[in-house]
C-alpha cells in the first residue's frame, strides 16, 4: 500500500476548494436567475405563444402562426406609431445622455475640494 504524495493531497484540496467556490457563486446567482426567469423570460415566452393565436367570440381560438404579425406590419397606423417611437428615441436618448453628462461633469468640477470619494 502506498502513501498519497503531497501532490495528490494538494490536488484533492484544490478540487474541494474550487467546488465550494462554484457552489457559493451559484448560491449568489441562483435567486436572481429564478426571479429573472419567472418575471421576465416566462411572461415574454407566454406572450409570444399567445400572439400565434387569434381569438374571436364566435369562432373560438385558432392557430394563425405569424398572421397577427403580418397584419400588424401591414397596418399603416402601426407603422406610423413605430416610426414615431423610433424618431422620439433617436432624439431624446442622446439629448438625455448629453444633459446627464454635462450635469455630472459640472458637479465634479464644483466639488474638487470636497472629501467625498467618487468613481471616475
List keywords for this structure.
cell membrane, 120 residues, MetI-like_sf, membrane, transport, UgpAE/MalFG_permease, 73% helix, 7% strand, mainly alpha, 3 helices
Description:
It is found in: Cell membrane. It is a multi-pass membrane protein. It is a single chain. The chain is mainly alpha-helical. The chain has two domains: 8-64; 75-106. 73% of the residues lie in helices and 7% in strands. It is built from three helices and two strands, in the order αββαα. It has helices spanning 6-51, 67-73, 76-110, and strands at 53-56, 60-63. The chain has a two-stranded antiparallel sheet with strand order 1-2. Strand 1 (53-56) and strand 2 form a beta hairpin. The longest helix is centred in the first third of the chain and has 46 residues, at 6-51. The protein is flat, with a radius of gyration of 28 Å. It starts with 5 loop residues before the first helix and ends in a 10-residue tail after the last helix. The model has no long low-confidence stretch (mean pLDDT 85).
Q: Quick one: how many beta strands?
A: 2
Tell me what portion of residues adopts beta-strand conformation: 5-15%
Instruction: Give a short account of the largest sheet.
Output: 2 strands, antiparallel
How many structural units, i.e. domains?
A: 2
From the spread of the alpha carbons, the general shape counts as: flat
Q: Strand sequence of the main sheet, in spatial order?
A: 1-2
Radius of gyration: 28 Å
- As a percent range, the share of helical residues equals over 70%
Q: From N to C, what is the helix and strand string? A: HEEHH
Question: From the helix content, strand content and strand pairing, which structural class follows?
Answer: mainly alpha
Question: End-to-end distance, in Å?
Answer: 61 Å
Low-pLDDT segments, ≥5 res: none
InterPro entries: MetI-like_sf, UgpAE/MalFG_permease
Subcellular location: Cell membrane
Membrane topology: Multi-pass membrane protein
Biased composition (Low complexity): 100-120
